[in-house]
Every structure is written in structure tokens, then in C-alpha cells.
Write a structure and sequence with these properties.
This protein has 691 residues and is an alpha/beta fold. It has three domains: 240 residues, no CATH class; 152 residues, Reverse transcriptase/Diguanylate cyclase domain (Alpha-Beta Plaits), CATH 3.30.70; 238 residues, EAL domain (TIM Barrel), CATH 3.20.20. It contains 24 helices and 24 strands. Helix 1 packs antiparallel against helix 2, helix 1 packs across helix 3 and helix 9 runs antiparallel to helix 10. The protein is elongated and about 150 Å long. The termini are far apart.
């Protein structure tokens, strides 16, 4: 027999190629498993090609490492056939290992098919030598090589299936598994080589026209390693891209969940908002079924919240709303839905068996909210008015239930507040009237239904007239002259007060400009500014435009700001007041003494006048408490170099006492009622000094 030998370096390379091919196979199984259907097919085909080339290259390098004392070559056709067998076997292995499950019978069948495929590749490659006479094989070693191939295939399939999922340590496991699998494949190959015997005098039939080992070793090794490396790098990059995509997808999903939460919940109280409320209400109606099981819709509105907001500012008001929401949560059941639908408005959907159950829930809420609140060091008191509408008696759809609960809530306010009222059909008459009034109010300015009446201010005690205060009236075509007490609260709730206030400023400036040009050059005009208008960015431009439009000096206009409005956010108020003062406009602090002013901040306000609230004047008597308060206010104003105006003077005794206490100007029905412009022009009893 011819004695063969092996090139140690090529043997080592064959082992390394086997390990690299094994690692590539394990990695590709993971990529195929995690990829989408179309991408998985491409990974399966490309992986089978790379893995088959790697396994075949290991076999072929092992064949090239084998030397006989004769010249060797390899038949091209049989060599290509052995490569195709390797690729087909690899395709089968990757397909089996990437399945969702791997039962024992599938593992055994796959091991037999893959092991026989590897053995077929090896012995087909051996046949490519075309030895004459033929190679003599030792049966026991041939069987052993096939057994090793089947065992190696079974182990490879099981390991690949187990390590296909990505984890932090899976790559370390794959390296170890690749070493074991590479050793098994190499063992099969060299066991098969050990089974071959070459008789003396044998020649290689493919030596003349076949592929020669002295020129193929290096190209095959380089090409194989390059292909496997490209596949591995592509796999790693694709995995990283997939992981980043997954991370981005998770982030987007988290962001979408957060956005969905924000869209459906109130930012301040974290309660459901109107959108989610309506969805829950629709669901409750649908879930009621043919039996129309009863549930209650309760509309809650805080009593006295606006005063807290005006006095202490929006920051304190927001904290109060958060505590209110917490109390509501604590007094309703988990299955009930409570939502915030407006500034201080909440709606509760509660499942009840009968009206008495709704009454119990409402009474609990009234009692809970009536308890004092401790907010940022302030003890605050508010109450709640609740309107209750029952399904299906008071409405069969979302709109009707919410509307009727709202109507019942307004009725609770009108009969005393701090209580709950059930909806009654008769309440709708008042509501329809309210809605009609709101609709007319939206169109009143366009229809020129607003008019100004002017109440004169007198130098104490009886004149002359120093100026007038513009008071808004609504001349409705069917309702007649409507008092501000009726429509101003509606305008403030709906925001219409800003547009209406701008019209008042413009009309007042036009009127005083006209009077100044026609004989009263020192007459001043006072205009009340609501809290909503004062905080609106359009106030200063509106004043500036009106002064410029009518060529009016700023000192002719006095803007009256309530004490609580001015002190709500002192820094913001100072900025607005300074901008107004820069226009020459005078500032009057209205209703002084009714709020919670800090003298430290008060002295910083660029005001020129304090106006004593009529509440102190109406019951003013000498040596009374109100007289002491008024005296203190006057002394404070004089210390701050401010003019003092008292409003609501209705008796001679009040006039005389206020004069003695030091008031500069007086205003009230005793001296002059609000009147239209033409009536004021005809007033001849008192004229400004110097006119």
C-alpha cells in the first residue's frame, strides 16, 4: 500500500475553517429565526451557500493536506458535485434548526439526513481522485466516520436550535459550540481518510486534466474565509441594525403610549379628560344593554374657586385642583370614571342601582370637598355644586346626559350651592334661555348693541367733576337694557370679555377725546379691566392703538385694576403695569381692602390711585369698624403718595365723613348716577376747574 502523509499547516487550517463554518451556521440560525418571512428565506439560501462552502472547504483543504508519493488531482465534475452536496446538506440543517420546535423524531431524522449528506460529500470528494485501481476502504472505519458524521450532525442541530435566541452570553456559548462542532466534523473527515487504502502501483486518473492541489490550497482557503467573514459581518451588522430598530420601536411604542395617555388625560390632575370621558360614557351606554341598566352622570363645579385663583394666583389654584381631584378619587369606586373637563369642572360616571345610590355618592363628595384645604401654607375653603343625570331616564346619549347633568349643576348653584341636585325637565327652560343669551352676546358687538354709561367723579365733597368712569351696558333688542351683573360673568367664562374689553377701551378713548376737544380739556376717563383681559397679551397694544387713533394723551385714561388681580402674580403684573405706565396711562387699584395685599409688593406697583370698595362705604358711620378701615386705607394711600377715591357714596353723612377722613374724590348715586354720553354733556351742575 502507498503510504500517505499530511501537511500539518493545512490540517490546522482545515480545523479552523470547520470551526468558522460551524460558528457561521450557529449565527445564521439565529438570524433566520428572528428575520421576517422574506428576509428569512434570503438568509436561509445565503446561509446554506456560505455554510456549505465552509464545510466543503474544510473537506477539500483536508484533502489537499494529504500527500501520496504520486501526483494527485481532482476531477472537476465530482468536486463540484461534492460542493453541491455540502450546500444541500447545509440548507437542510439550517431549515431544521430554524423551525419553531424540534421534536426528537425530527432531530433523529435530520441527524441521519445531514450526517449521510456530509459523508456523501466526503466520499464523493474522495472519488474525485479517480484512483486506478480504486481506493480500498476499511469497512469499520467507514462506518465509524458515518456514525461520527451523524452524531456530529445531531449535536449540531440540537446546539443550533438551543442557541438561536440572542442573549448577552449567547456568543460565548456559540464559540464553545463551534469548537466542539468543528472538532466533530474534522474527526469525521480524518476518520474517513484513515479508512482509505491506496494499493501499490496506484495512479491518480485526475492528475493530468483535473484540479491540482499545489495551486488550489491558498485560493480555496482565502475565498472560503472571505465568504464566511462577509456573511458573519453582514449577520452582525444586520443584528445590530435589528436591535437598534427594536430599541427604536420600543421607544416609539413607549412614546406612543405616553402620548396616548397625554391625549386622554388631564395634564394637571392626571384624571381622564373630556375625550376619554366621552369614550367611557359611550361604552357605559352600550354596556347597559337592552335592560338599560342605570348609571349616573354627575357634573361637579367648585364654588368659590375663581376667588381663590384671583386672590392667590393660578399656581395656588392649580394645587387646589390637584387636591380636589385626589379627594374625588378617594371617595369614588375604582370602576367609576372621574374626569376633568374644564378649569374647575369635573364629571363622574358612576354605576348605580337606583337614584338613592347616586345621592349617597354625591353627598360624600359634597362633604369631602367642604373640608378645609391646606395649600402651600394657606387654609382654603371651597365647596362643590353637583348636578346628577340618570341613564336612561335623563338622556339616552352622551350629549344629552352631559347637558342635563350640567343643567342640574347650574340649578344647584342657583339654589344655594354646596349641594347636589337631580335633573328635572323644567330646568331646561332656564338653560335654553342661558344659551340664547350667550349666542346673542357673541353677536352683540357686531350688532352695535353695547353702549357706555358714564358716572362722574367729584372732588370731595361736592365737586367739581374731575372725570368719569365708563360703565358697560347691553342694549338688547328684546330684553332691553341688560345689567353687567347678568352678562359679564358669561363673558368672562367664555373669554368674550377680552374682545368686549377692547371695544370699551376704544369707545371710552373716543368719547373722552371728543369731550376734551369740545370744552373739557382736563376730563379723565376710567375703564375697568377684568382679570382675564389684564393677563391677555392684547391689552397693552389695544390701549396704545386707542390712544394713537384718537390722538389722546395717556394721562387722560385711567385703568382700574382690582387689588386681587394686581396681586395675583406680582412680577407679571409689574411688567404689564410698567408698560401701561410708559404710555402715560394712570393706574387705579380698585376694590382696595378686599384682598390680601402685601405692602411690600403694593408699594412697587406703579399706581396713582387707590379706590375704596363700596363694601366699606355702604355701612360707613363715625367710630365704626368700617370707618377705622377706611381711615387706615386713606393714611396708607397718602403715605404712598396716592390719590384716594371712594365709590358707592349714597348719603350726605357718608360724603361728609369720607371728606373729613381725607378722600380726594367721591363717586356714587348721591352725586351722580351712570348716564349716557348725551345726558352727561348736558350736565351743567359742575364743570372741571379751569374750564
Amino acid at each position: 500500500m502507498l503510504v500517505g502523509s499530511f501537511d500539518s499547516l493545512l490540517v490546522l487550517f482545515s480545523f479552523l475553517v470547520a470551526v468558522l463554518a460551524s460558528y457561521t451556521a450557529l449565527d445564521l440560525v439565529g438570524r433566520i429565526t428572528s428575520a421576517e418571512r422574506v428576509a428569512a428565506r434570503w438568509w436561509l439560501c445565503g446561509g446554506a451557500l456560505a455554510m456549505g462552502l465552509g464545510v466543503w472547504s474544510m473537506h477539500f483543504v483536508g484533502m489537499l493536506a494529504f500527500h501520496l508519493p504520486i501526483k494527485l488531482g481532482f476531477d472537476f465534475g465530482l468536486t463540484v458535485l461534492s460542493l453541491l452536496i455540502a450546500i444541500a446538506s447545509s440548507l437542510l440543517a439550517l431549515w431544521i434548526a430554524s423551525r419553531d420546535n424540534l421534536p426528537a423524531r425530527h432531530l433523529v431524522l435530520g441527524a441521519l439526513m445531514l450526517g449521510c449528506g456530509i459523508a456523501a460529500m466526503h466520499y464523493t470528494g474522495m472519488a474525485a481522485l479517480q484512483m486506478q485501481p480504486g481506493i480500498v476502504y476499511i469497512p469499520a472505519l467507514v462506518v465509524a466516520s458515518i456514525a461520527i458524521a451523524i452524531a456530529a450532525a445531531g449535536a449540531a442541530l440540537w446546539i443550533a436550535f438551543r442557541l438561536r435566541a440572542y442573549s448577552s452570553r449567547v456568543r460565548s456559548y456559540r464559540v464553545g459550540a463551534a469548537l466542539v462542532m468543528g472538532l466533530a466534523v474534522v474527526s469525521m473527515h480524518y476518520t474517513g481518510m484513515a479508512a482509505a487504502r491506496f494499493p501499490l502501483g496506484s495512479i491518480c486518473g485526475a492528475a493530468r486534466n483535473g484540479l491540482h492541489n499545489d495551486t488550489l490550497a491558498l485560493p480555496i482557503i482565502v475565498v472560503t474565509i472571505a465568504v464566511l467573514a462577509v456573511v458573519l459581518i453582514t449577520s452582525v451588522l444586520d443584528l445590530r441594525l435589528e436591535m437598534r430598530t427594536a430599541a427604536l420601536s420600543a421607544s416609539l411604542e413607549e412614546a406612543n403610549e405616553e402620548l396616548s395617555y397625554l391625549v386622554l388625560h388631564d395634564n394637571l390632575t392626571k384624571l381622564p379628560n373630556r375625550v376619554l370621558l366621552e369614550e367611557r360614557l359611550k361604552f357605559a351606554i352600550e354596556s347597559a344593554g337592552p335592560a338599560e341598566q342605570c348609571f349616573a352622570v354627575m357634573f361637579l363645579d367648585l364654588d368659590g374657586f375663581k376667588s381663590v385663583n384671583d386672590t392667590f394666583g393660578h399656581a395656588i389654584g392649580d394645587l387646589l385642583l390637584i387636591q380636589t381631584a385626589d379627594r374625588i378619587r378617594a371617595n369614588v369606586r375604582l370602576q367609576d370614571t372621574c374626569a376633568r373637563v374644564g378649569g374647575d369642572e369635573f364629571v363622574l360616571i358612576a354605576s348605580v342601582r337606583e337614584p338613592a345610590d347616586a345621592s349617597i355618592i354625591a353627598d360624600k363628595l359634597v362633604s369631602a370637598i367642604d373640608e378645609p384645604f391646606s395649600v402651600a401654607g394657606h387654609d382654603l375653603r371651597v365647596s362643590v355644586s353637583i348636578g346628577i343625570a340618570l341613564f336612561p331616564a335623563d338622556g339616552a346619549d352622551v350629549e344629552a346626559l352631559l347637558k342635563n347633568a350640567d343643567v342640574a349643576m347650574y340649578h344647584a348653584k342657583s339654589v344655594g350651592r354646596n349641594q347636589a341636585c337631580f335633573f328635572d325637565g323644567a330646568m331646561n327652560t332656564h338653560t335654553e334661555d342661558h344659551l340664547a343669551l350667550l349666542q346673542d352676546l357673541r353677536l352683540a358687538r357686531k350688532r352695535r348693541q353695547f353702549v357706555l354709561h358714564y358716572q362722574p367723579k367729584f372732588v370731595a365733597p361736592s365737586g367739581p367733576i374731575t372725570g368719569v368712569e365708563a360703565l358697560l351696558r347691553w342694549n338688547h333688542p328684546t330684553r332691553g337694557l341688560i345689567s353687567p351683573d347678568t352678562f359679564i360673568p358669561i363673558a368672562e367664562r367664555t373669554g368674550l370679555i377680552v374682545q368686549i374689553g377692547e371695544w370699551v377701551i376704544d369707545e371710552a378713548c373716543r368719547q373722552v377725546s371728543q369731550w376734551r376737544r369740545t370744552g373739557r380739556p382736563t376730563l379723565t376717563m376710567a375703564v375697568n379691566i377684568s382679570a382675564l383681559q389684564f393677563s391677555n397679551t392684547r391689552l397693552v397694544p389695544a390701549v396704545k392703538n386707542a390712544l394713537e387713533r384718537y390722538q389722546l394723551a395717556g394721562e387722560a385714561l385711567t385703568l382700574e385694576i382690582t387689588e386681587s388681580t394686581a396681586m395675583r402674580d406680582v412680577d407679571a403684573s409689574l411688567e404689564i403695569l410698567e408698560r401701561l405706565r410708559a404710555l402715560g396711562v394712570r393706574i387705579s387699584i380698585d376694590d382696595f381692602g378686599t384682598g390680601y395685599s402685601s405692602l411690600l409688593y403694593l408699594k412697587r406697583l406703579p399706581a396713582s390711585e387707590l379706590k375704596i370698595d363700596r363694601g366699606f362705604v355702604s355701612e360707613l358711620v363715625a367710630d365704626g369698624e368700617d370707618a377705622a378701615i377706611v381711615a387706615a386705607i386713606i393714611a396708607l394711600g397718602q403715605t404712598l403718595n396716592l390719590k384716594i377715591v371712594a365709590e358707592g357714596v349714597e348719603t350726605g353723612a357718608q360724603r361728609d365723613l369720607l371728606t373729613r377722613l381725607g378722600c380726594d374724590s367721591l363717586q356714587g348715586f348721591l352725586l351722580g348716577r351712570p348716564m349716557p354720553a348725551l345726558e352727561f354733556e348736558g350736565l351743567g351742575r359742575a364743570l372741571p376747574q379751569g374750564v
